[in-house]
Amino acid sequence: MNPAPADAGILFVRSEGDSDRFRSTIAASPENVVRSDHGTTLGNAFGASVATVEHLLAALAISQIDNAFIEVAGPEIPILDGSAAPFLEGFETAGLRPQSSQRSSVEIVEPVHIVDGERAILIEPAEHFSLKVEIDFEDCLIGRQSLSIALSDAEDIARIASARTFCRLYEVDALRRAGLIRGGSLENSLVVDGPRLLNGAGLRDSHEFVLHKALDLLGDLYLLGAPIRGAVHAIKPGHDLNCRAALALYRQLHPSRQAAAV
Ligand SMILES: [Zn+2]
Predict the structure, then answer these.
(1) Which CATH homologous superfamily contains domain 2-260?
(2) DSSP secondary structure, 96-162, as one string
(3) Does the annotation count 38 as an active-site position?
């Protein structure tokens, strides 16, 4: 990761080989989401793409980093331990520098309601950012979890940042067959099989599952490139809903781009 000028935004650059830098640059934007099933993949008009951007974007959101060039030698961001903590440690080691430009925020003018059956993301105008997330995996160890977090204290931030990605054992084979999670293992994902957690070392937090959903949501919403001033309530969220909510907000902010959208 390298510094970028003020107002450049977050720019991913596929850097392998002698690729043309212009054609291999992909801006973090809700308009550039090309897949959002098991993670968030961004792509550009030249066919370059980068997958699994969400945990790194969440780390950028938490660290209030608005501008960065992120060079990626491969099709996806490394999963590391499945959380955002290693990225935050990297930022701390490298150090951050304030830039001269004013930091912007996304103000919610009109509520955004993205609803898909019993799943929903509801974003309402509010003075400050707040996040409420509910999940329901009643048939296994994960169960029902609910979390309200304001991100104003360091302890909350650390809990979210260190929450690892999770999946169900039966999904692992299906994902492998689909060519995904090739780097996946018990080292970088919590794997749940019915009432059992297959990771011997156990959970980092009793709410680690819902905390990870909050992390994913923070990351996907940071596709907007600025923090949200509003109250976010997510019920059984996933990358698909998160990215739809980010796109709806983006279109509120940039109404002139509506016509170009398909
Ligand atoms: Zn995740």
Answers:
(1) lpxc deacetylase, domain 2 (3.30.1700.10)
(2) ----SSPPP-EE-SS-EEEEETTEEEEEEE-SS-EEEEEEEETTSTTEEEEEEE-S-SHHHHHHHHT
(3) no
